[in-house]
Amino acid sequence: MKRIVVANDLVGIGKVGLSASIPVMAACCMEQALLPTCLLSGHTGGGNKPVKWGTSDLVKAFLTEWRERGADCHAIVVGYLSQTEDAEKILDFLSLQQVPLILDPIMADQGKLYTGFTSQHVAVMTQLAGQADLLIPNVSEACLLTQTPYLGTHYSEEDVKQLVIKLAALGPRHIVVSGISFQEGEIGYYQSSNNHLSYYFGTQFPQQFYGTGDIVSAIIASGFCYELPMKDVLNLAISFIEKALQTTLMLKEDISFGITYEPHLAYLNTSFQQLMEENK
After folding, report:
1. What is residue 211's three-state secondary structure?
2. Looking at the whole model, is its pTM more than 0.85?
3. CB burial of residue 257 (10 Å; 0-12, 13-18, 19+)
4. CA 98 → CA 63, 80, 132, 227, distances in Å?
5. What domains can be seen in the chain, in order of their start residue?
6. Among 112, 181, 219, 277, which one is least packed by beta carbons within 10 Å?
């Protein structure tokens, strides 16, 4: 199994950040070194005001201790950074370890920065994007990273293509933009790798779910580490998330408490291992 450092927030209720990626990456045969960038009682979506505890002082200490004990890793995934100075600590670690950086620049949605985030967060995420081997922004984050006016909900394939060209100019070798939708009821991903551009779509649900991006990014990062064909990884991610969302709605419970993906982890594990076997 491959070991991966995952820098993200850890929430008590809501199944976002590390709370989502831990079981999902485990199902994708990844050993994880957890680097919590902050602790939250729950996510901030829907107007929630969770208890928050900063862990910025621990980020450098964790990374230093792991390096000193020889805990090598195959990559580092960066998501939610509570403090902008944590980006520099991660870049210092990368300069010593020389491993791929997978960046999910969690900072915005629907054209707006998340609560508590400022232009400084955009600047450090842009800096990290320049070092990334794989960049996984949503449309809002892609616009912020490239200083492009928010595309809104109506845009063309050419608009997305130009946005990705600007992202590529920052430095990442591979790009997957999430949340792409050209028609009602359909949502998906735009992949750019070695000048090859592809779209992958699934069902768009009208409800506002929390944690879908974290789940899909965890699957994408795992597939990238195992060098699996990204088209197969994205199709698996879409299939898994659709199953989880359908189950969540079927239960008719408060969806702010998170997506019910647990019944489908065995499917994810079996499917991911099959992809690994097919691509030995």
Report:
1. coil
2. yes
3. middle
4. 14, 22, 12, 17
5. 2-273 (3.40.1190.20)
6. 277
